[in-house]
Specification:
Blueprint lengths: L15 E5 L15 E2 L2 E2 L1 E9 L3 E6 L2 H27 L3 H5 L4 E4 L4 E4 H11 L2 H10 L2 H22 L21 H12 L8 H6 L12 H10 L19 E7 L10 E9 L6 E8 L3 E8 L7 E3 L4 E6 L5 E9 L2 E7 L2 E4 L1 E10 L5 E10 L5 E2 L1 E3 L2 E4 L5 E7 L7 H10 L3 H11 L5 E6 L5 E4 L9 H6 L5 H7 L5 E3 L26 E4 L2 E4 L29 H15 L12 H8 L5 H14 L4 E3 L5 E3 L1 H9 L11 H11 L10 E3 L11 E3 L4 H15 L9 H4 E3 L21 E2 L10 E3 L1 E3 L1 E7 L5 E7 L14 H7 L4 E2 L4 H6 L4 E2 L9
Parallel strand pairs: 5-10, 14-25, 32-34
Antiparallel strand pairs: 1-4, 2-3, 4-5, 4-39, 6-7, 8-9, 8-27, 9-35, 9-36, 10-11, 11-12, 12-13, 13-23, 14-15, 14-22, 15-16, 17-18, 19-22, 20-21, 23-24, 24-26, 28-29, 30-31, 33-35, 36-37, 37-38
């Protein structure tokens, strides 16, 4: 077969991409037999072209062929990462990567061993669990999934046959590089559905077992006392779900005529996702006959567009505050801790023996068997935070989880139907009627259309009254640490989830009880709740499980709102008339300014710099004079040439954990009538704030970082071999432009960015109604260092060189870097 070829610098007609898989022998398709249609083997035909930066443009007459080309392209760019994910969801990590190796999900904070991960995924993405997705999904989903598998396996087969030399060296010779099967797609879909729910508890589900001896149940007061003794002063010190939010986030704006200079609508979308693992986003342009044309990004391994645009609409997502699950407390049989009380009778838990192959440090492989348990609600689990057993399996009580997204068979239908929608109005209607979005808010607009916001997502139907009447003795812990997350009595039938009349499935809220808003000016979401999607029209009266209302917004959300308000009244200092155009929108979203600096720098420097020395939290004096000299000249941003921002960052890292309502933090308290501007006035007289500044300066003094280093020398990509400087800041300091290093470690003198701005798009429409889109995949399209598309988009992003996303055929054909593929048994022309 002829490999990928680049045909000079002049665009030529697209070359046919076609393939025919055989179902006969061979290791590379033993797990993925070719589909049979009418007694004949399926034939996939599509055109595949790549424009600059490796952007695939795929055209096909059917969804199976589209999926085939898409699977091939993703395999070419990200084979090892996709193969590792397949290994993971099959529960084979311990067998091939070692039982004691680490497994982590950066997007939800879960970290455990490979062995525990295998038990979790074997128990979670079972054949029975994925069957509703397989049977409930639209035919297009099945066709595209089947084609994706075939395209992936074709590339893998070529690699094994010696083609693509030098590519994918990280996994090319590994025994775990295996063909994909169709069920692997549905396992991946379910894995993504439960990203904000069940898979947070990988360790707790995998290790939950009945007590082998007398294990007492801790009271609510004992748990709270133990957390305080462990140094937990705020739920920000705890993992999700007791932390304020998931580790992932996003920013987005919908701008309609009332916010636009030209009167044409605009959309900005920018997920903040990990730069590693499979929650990266991949950009592609897909066209299927006259059924669908869409361009945008999807999480790896999904043959659709999850955030994108076409001539009718554009949309984006941010992680929602709503909980996707609830806990149930089970009262156990004193004589048998695997039986629980339900409606006055003890019933058996469902027990399943799971055997996993595990490789030890000597390379020996043995079987490990555990018995895992389920209740009528879902898996049994344990959960610790800061070493304190909050949910424990004692002789008296056990805890179980019901996950609404584990029951969501509409997930793929939502996006495939959106990809085929013919109008903005249809897009909005599908949001509520399908109700398959798992865990993200949505903002959308279209040419000449209003700005739309909706948190129409899969949420357990637990009204506040039910959460209260079904509360247990431990519920006060949840009320303090995770307001809105229900812990309910699992022994009562009346504590089962309700079902709204307009809900498409049992146990969830329908669209009439979920927040949505349309306006003729603007809407936004930056990961706080639905409450002030536009502060002029608050959304109130929704159940606490969906999100909080009339509570302080994060600094990032306040900046999200403030910079729109200032752009519309002209107080932001940008040139020209008020309102947005693409140029000032793009400038604003990458300008790397900070809300905390705007709120507090003048007061901090005025109060502390004349003193010259401040006591740190350990009581020792810290010379702050050098830091003050730098901060007085700092431009207040984290742009590449900005000097001093790292000092401010380390200061604010110490301020952030202080409770918002504490007088040690803000002197002007939060006012629900003014969520954009309050709280305010940092209490610079507080010893805690003084120590925070001194400790921040000391952290820089003790590190290899120079006080006078520019951000571009300090902050670089943490995933590329070459040094690529990056602008941007952390959400906790009120940055809108996000560049994050997790965990924070100054010992190498750098911020190694591995999280933050990921896929970015600005979209508007020209006079002919065609989309005009620009943006980035900030970490680039490929995870293979040998790929030409491994770091090119990252370098463009570093220079704020916005990349045009070619949508029209003439744009694609005019691209001087156009690459065409010949994937047929033919000689090269």
């Amino acid at each position: 077969m002829t490999p990928t070829i680049k045909l000079g610098g002049i665009a030529l007609a697209a070359i046919l991409l076609s393939g025919c898989l055989s179902s006969s022998g061979g290791d590379d398709n033993s797990n993925a037999p070719a589909p049979v249609v009418g007694g004949d083997q399926q034939v996939f035909k599509a055109t595949l072209r790549r424009t600059a930066f490796g952007i695939p443009h795929i055209e096909a007459d059917d969804f199976a062929s589209m999926g085939y080309a898409y699977g091939y392209a993703q395999a070419e760019d990200n084979l090892c990462l996709l193969a590792e994910d397949t290994l993971t969801i099959r529960g084979l990590r311990a067998r091939f990567l070692g039982a004691g190796g680490t497994y982590r999900i950066p997007s939800n904070g879960a970290t455990t061993t490979n062995l525990n991960a295998d038990f979790f995924w074997r128990a979670t993405v079972t054949d029975e669990a994925i069957q509703p997705l397989k049977t409930g999904s639209d035919p297009e989903v099945g066709e595209a999934s089947r084609g994706f598998v075939a395209g992936f396996n074709r590339y893998l087969r070529e690699l094994r046959n010696g083609e693509h030399p030098g590519r994918h060296e990280a996994c090319r010779g590994e025994p775990w590089l295996m063909p994909m099967a169709e069920d692997d797609m549905y396992r991946r879909y379910l894995r993504l559905a439960v990203l904000a729910s069940s898979s947070v508890f990988v360790d707790g589900v995998a290790t939950a077992r009945p007590p082998a001896m007398d294990v007492p149940e801790l009271s609510a007061d004992e748990i709270l006392d133990a957390l305080a003794a462990a140094g937990v002063e705020d739920n920000g010190d705890l993992p999700f779900p007791f932390a304020d939010e998931l580790p992932i986030g996003s920013n987005m704006y919908g701008l309609s005529a009332g916010a636009s200079r030209s009167g044409e609508s605009m959309l900005f979308g920018n997920p903040h996702f990990p730069w590693e693992k499979t929650e990266r986003l991949y950009l592609a342009h897909l066209k299927v006959g006259d059924q669908a044309e869409i361009m945008g990004a999807a999480l790896y391994g999904l043959p659709a567009v999850l955030i994108g645009f076409n001539e009718h609409f554009a949309w984006s997502h941010t992680v929602s505050t709503a909980y996707r699950f609830s806990f149930y407390e089970l009262t156990l049989n004193p004589a048998d801790p695997t039986q629980y009380l339900y409606e006055g009778e003890f019933v058996d838990m469902d027990a399943t023996d799971i055997t996993v192959q595990a490789m030890d440090d000597n390379g020996e492989v043995s079987d490990v068997t555990r018995t895992l348990y389920r209740s009528r609600y879902g898996p049994l689990l344990i959960f610790e935070a800061a070493g304190v057993p909050i949910l424990n399996w004692s002789n008296a009580k056990a805890y179980t989880l019901r996950d609404a997204n584990a029951e969501n068979d509409r997930l793929l239908n939502q996006f495939f139907r959106w990809n085929q929608a013919d109008s903005f109005e249809e897009f909005v209607e599908l949001h509520g009627s399908v109700l398959g979005v798992p865990w993200v808010n949505t903002v959308a607009t279209g040419p000449g259309k209003p700005a739309y916001y909706g948190d129409l997502t899969v949420v357990p139907n637990v009204p506040d009254t039910k959460a209260q009447t079904c509360a247990t003795a431990l519920s006060p812990v949840f009320d303090l640490l995770a307001p809105g997350l229900p812990l309910m009595d699992g022994g009562r039938a009346d504590c089962q989830w309700d079902t709204d009349a307009d809900a498409p499935a049992k146990g969830i809220f329908g669209p009439s009880n979920l927040p949505a808003l349309q306006r003729d000016d603007w809407v936004h979401n930056c990961n706080d709740s639905h409450w002030v999607s536009n502060p002029a029209e608050p959304l109130t009266g929704f159940s606490a499980i969906i999100g909080d209302e009339e509570t302080p917004r994060t600094l990032r959300t306040r900046k999200c709102m403030e910079q729109v308000i200032q752009r519309l009244d002209g107080s932001d200092g940008r040139p020209g008339s008020t309102g947005f155009d693409v140029a000032n929108l793009q400038d604003m979203v990458l300008d790397s300014s900070l809300q905390s600096e705007q709120l507090a720098r003048e007061d901090v420097l005025s109060a502390y710099c004349p003193i010259g020395v401040l006591p740190g939290s350990d009581g020792q004096p810290v010379d702050i004079s050098g830091a003050c000299s730098v901060l007085q000249r700092w431009d207040g941003t984290h742009n590449l040439d900005s000097v001093g921002g790292h000092i401010w960052r380390e200061f604010w890292r110490n301020v952030d954990p202080l409770p918002v309502e504490s007088l040690d933090k803000w002197l002007t308290p939060f006012d629900p009538a003014d969520p954009v501007n309050t709280p305010a006035m940092l209490n610079v007289a507080s010893p805690l704030i003084q120590a925070a500044f001194a400790d921040g300066v000391k952290a820089i003094q003790d590190s290899p970082m120079a006080m006078t280093s520019a951000m571009g020398k300090l902050q670089v990509s943490g995933i590329h071999d070459s040094v690529i400087p990056l602008f941007g800041g952390e959400g906790f300091e009120g940055a809108f432009t996000i560049a994050s290093s997790r965990p924070n470690d100054l010992s190498d003198g750098r911020y190694d960015v591995n999280y933050g701005n990921s896929y970015i798009q600005t979209v508007t429409w020209d006079e002919a109604g065609q989309p005009v889109a620009e943006g980035f995949v900030t970490y680039s399209q490929s995870t293979d260092p040998a790929s030409p598309w491994f770091s090119d988009m990252t370098e463009a992003y570093s220079g704020k060189q916005w990349i045009r996303f070619p949508y029209q055929q003439d744009e694609i054909e005019a691209d001087p870097e156009l690459v065409r593929y010949r994937l047929v048994e033919l000689e090269r022309d």
